[in-house]
Amino acid sequence: MTVTIYDVAREAKVSMATVSRVLNGNPNVKPETRKKVKEVIKRLNYRPNAIARGLASKKTTTVGVIIPDISNLYYSSLARGLDDIAEMYNYQTIITNTDNNPEKERDSFLNLVSKQVDGIVFLGGTINDETIEDIKNSNVPVVICGTSEKDANLPSVNIDYFKAIKEVATHLLDKGAKDIYFIKALYSEQLERHIEDGLKEAYKEYDLPFKEEYTREVATHYHAGREVFDRLIDEDDNVDVLLTMSDEAAVGMLHGALDRGISFPNRLQLVSCSNTRLVHMMRPPVTSIAIPLYDIGAVGMRLLTKYMKDEPVDEPNVILPYAIEYRASTK
């Protein structure tokens, strides 16, 4: 039979309110009473029901995490930072994977709200309009990490993608590149716009035309990167640089080039925007914008705790520093 808080109170010969205070770390319990209650909890192997506790305290100490693709290193790196901070503040995480499916994303959000989570974090991806309306209509605090949404007015943690892409594009153009293709990877439509705008601004400063065909779309996985490379190189032999948001897609592009005897960086250059461990494993190692993924997840979770605890928030939209790590895939 399931052990209840009533059983613990009876065995410890205290009130259920006293057991509750011990469970919640309330200091207004005598040390000898606290010790006795904890011994009974251990002996009976009592596990508090988070939902039942939530009904009484209106807090469940749980946080929902919505991830587009948990197998992707970009998202798992964000999640690692978040989970470490959640543990530090004694929150449990409930992770849901949406497979980049808008309907599944909305169902995940509503399901987490129904479980009375104290807060929700979106890790990357594009949040669809219906989900944004659900967020606005709910009382659950939400923070988005590694993504941004136009006019959503949601607390967020990111880097300045416009500035980062403009910086790396300026470097490439200064080294003689002309045709820089931006391979979108379905991380976030808004972030993709920031990246494309930064790329266009770099072209503008060099008084070079940015052609519409410079922008392509691809899924985030290896085979998609391989396929888009084959199509692209067949269409345009003058490609100078491939710039992609996805490290996994970058692996596919690099392998496609090597299979055709195309060398890096003299004939072709490759830049990625995630800087997961994959960029170090490739040969040649790939130049990347070093996004502090772990820190974005960690800071996002800390920001969420402030909203959940009604603490003051000085800046709801946090911008973290980035670096550009130039490696052998570029000049």
TrEMBL record:
Q: Which UniProt keywords apply?
A: Activator, DNA-binding, Repressor, Transcription, Transcription regulation
Q: Start and end of every HTH lacI-type domain?
A: 3-57
A molecular function (GO) held by this record is: DNA-binding transcription factor activity
Q: Tell me the first and last residues of the signal peptide.
A: none
* Any one Pfam family match given in the protein's UniProt record, by short name: Peripla_BP_1
Q: Which InterPro entries match?
A: CcpA, HTH_LacI, Lambda_DNA-bd_dom_sf, Peripla_BP/Lac1_sug-bd_dom, Peripla_BP_I
Transmembrane stretches in the record are none
Q: What does this protein do?
A: Global transcriptional regulator of carbon catabolite repression (CCR) and carbon catabolite activation (CCA), which ensures optimal energy usage under diverse conditions.
Protein name from the UniProt record: Catabolite control protein A
Q: Which source organism?
A: Salinicoccus kekensis
